[in-house]
């Protein structure tokens, strides 16, 4: 039987979740039932009228793919800047690979985010 569209030919996938109202997202867990992608990004949208903006990058080659360094911590004054990590870019496991994203991890004001103007 010939495969019409084998999974290894898929190069671009968009998954958009419409939650119906505003939420403060603090943690995202993705489970892949195929090998994890070499690169992908999480975007956010503050309101229906705003543009999508990068929230977090994941890539084996952050600089080549997204033009940013592999960096796990933001600098003071740039806490809303999307970070990039290569941590979850290994193809293994072939199924069931987790990707975890804590929106406050690596942010200097993480423990005082409720009083941080930059993180509000």
TrEMBL record:
One of its GO terms (cellular component) is basement membrane. It holds the Pfam family Laminin_N. PROSITE patterns: LAMININ_NTER. Residues 1-120 form the Laminin N-terminal domain. Gene3D superfamilies: Galactose-binding domain-like. GO terms for biological process: animal organ morphogenesis; axon guidance; tissue development. Signal peptide: none annotated. InterPro entries: Laminin/Netrin_ECM, Laminin_N. Keywords: Disulfide bond, Laminin EGF-like domain. This is Jg23417 protein. It comes from Pararge aegeria aegeria. The gene is jg23417.
């Amino acid at each position: 039987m010939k495969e019409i569209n084998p999974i290894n030919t898929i190069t671009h996938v968009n998954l958009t979740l419409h939650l119906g109202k505003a939420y403060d997202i603090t943690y995202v867990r993705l489970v892949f039932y195929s090998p994890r992608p070499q690169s992908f990004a999480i975007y956010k949208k503050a309101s229906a009228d705003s543009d999508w903006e990068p929230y977090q990058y994941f890539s084996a080659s952050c600089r080549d793919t997204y033009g940013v360094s592999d960096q796990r911590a933001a600098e003071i004054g740039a806490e809303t800047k999307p970070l990039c990590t290569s941590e979850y870019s290994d193809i293994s496991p072939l199924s069931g690979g987790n990707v975890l994203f804590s929106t406050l991890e690596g942010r200097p004001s993480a423990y005082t985010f409720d009083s941080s103007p930059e993180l509000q």
